[in-house]
Amino acid sequence: SSASEPSSFAGASPPSPSSIGGGAGGAASAAQEPRKMASAEQLVLDLCDRELRENALLELSKKREIFQDLAPLLWHSFGTIAALLQEIVSIYPALSPPVLSAGASNRVCNALALLQCVASHPDTRIPFLHAHVPLFLYPFLNTFSKTRPFEYLRLTSLGVIGALVKVDDTEVIGFLLQTEIIPLCLRTMEMGSELSKTVATFIVQKILLDDIGLRYVCATPERFYAVGSVLGNMVISLADQPSTRLLKHIIRCYLRLSDNPRACVALHNCLPDMLKDGTFNISLRVSHANISVVTNS
Predict the structure, then answer these.
(1) CATH 3.40.50.2300 fits 188-297, yes or no
(2) What is the rounded average pLDDT for all residues in the chain?
(3) C-alpha to C-alpha distance for 107 and 58, rounded to whole angstroms
(4) Per-residue b/e over 64-85, b at no fewer than 16 CB within 10 Å?
(5) For residue 17, how many other CB atoms are within 10 A of its CB?
């Protein structure tokens, strides 16, 4: 993954303690591969057993980086995706009023981590999209509570959407635009934690980088100013709580918006002064040329 992408997309699990290098250790590691897959298959089967599901969710989410081809296994095994969706739907009643416990949040986030695995894999990404699975996550992004269980839920849900947009694919962007992901991302950009804001801004950035995404946002003044006002408010708040990573994504959004002639004209009036007066130059280490693309074109 590129340096510009939030590190959360790389997968939260620590690397496996398997032996490094060749020789006998390497041979032993190779011999363990069939055993790993056998254990992955058993855990996937356990997902369909209500008594065993919680442990299977935990173990699979922790080990998803070391199980090769886990995504196709999850997608193609009977009843598995239905079991994961069952986990997601089961906590809908706890969203409003907001009574989600930490334990319930952790459990559903383990299910979401497995869906992120499916969303990331080239063989399962588009079937995952065609099945409209991301829509099951939208109620989580529509929550307002700032308690830790809800923040963790929003962040993990954004991770699934982020995995979809990480690979440039117009079909993915078209689906997300039709399902109105932008207002949900804008909400998180306004009220989420720094990490949630960063992932949500990354998603908006990737949507804008696709031509249909840029056209969509710039099609009406209302859409443009909805995005522009949130970006502007974020810049102002960053003056008090700096985040170089978040600021970089915000500036990339502005630079991409400037590729649209009408939006570029509008940016002359709504670009925050802090991006023009040198407030962030030290923390960001960007050249004036970047901002001048917006301010002088």
Answers:
(1) no
(2) 87
(3) 7
(4) bebbeebbebbbeeeebbebbe
(5) 7
Fold match between domain 37-167 and domain 188-297 = yes
Q: Determine contact, residues 198/249, Cβ cutoff 8 Å.
A: yes
Residue pLDDT, tens place only, 276-288: 877 776 555 544 4
Distance from C-alpha of 135 to C-alpha of 140, rounded to nearest angstrom: 10
Half-sphere exposure of 77 (CA within 13 A, CB side): 19
Taking the CB of residue 236, how many other CB atoms lie within 10 A of it? 12
Q: Where are the domains of the chain?
A: 37-167, 188-297
Q: Say yes or no to pLDDT of 20 above 50.
A: no
Token couple for 177: 């635009």
Say how far residue 111 (Cα) sits from the centre of its chain. 15
Residue-wise pLDDT tens digits, 91-148: 999 999 999 999 999 999 999 999 999 999 999 999 999 999 999 999 999 999 999 9
- In the block, tokens 């363990």 appear at 32
Distances (CA, A) of 132 to 115, 202, 258: 12, 21, 32
**pLDDT tens sequence across 182-236:** 999 999 999 999 999 999 999 999 999 999 999 999 999 999 999 999 999 999 9
Report how far residue 44's alpha carbon sits from residue 38's, in angstroms, rounded to the nearest whole number.
10
Is the torsion defined by CA of 137, 139, 140, 141 positive or negative?
A: positive
pLDDT computed for residue 32 by the predictor: 59
User: Which homologous superfamily is 37-167 in?
Assistant: Leucine-rich Repeat Variant (1.25.10.10)
Quote the pLDDT of residue 198.
98
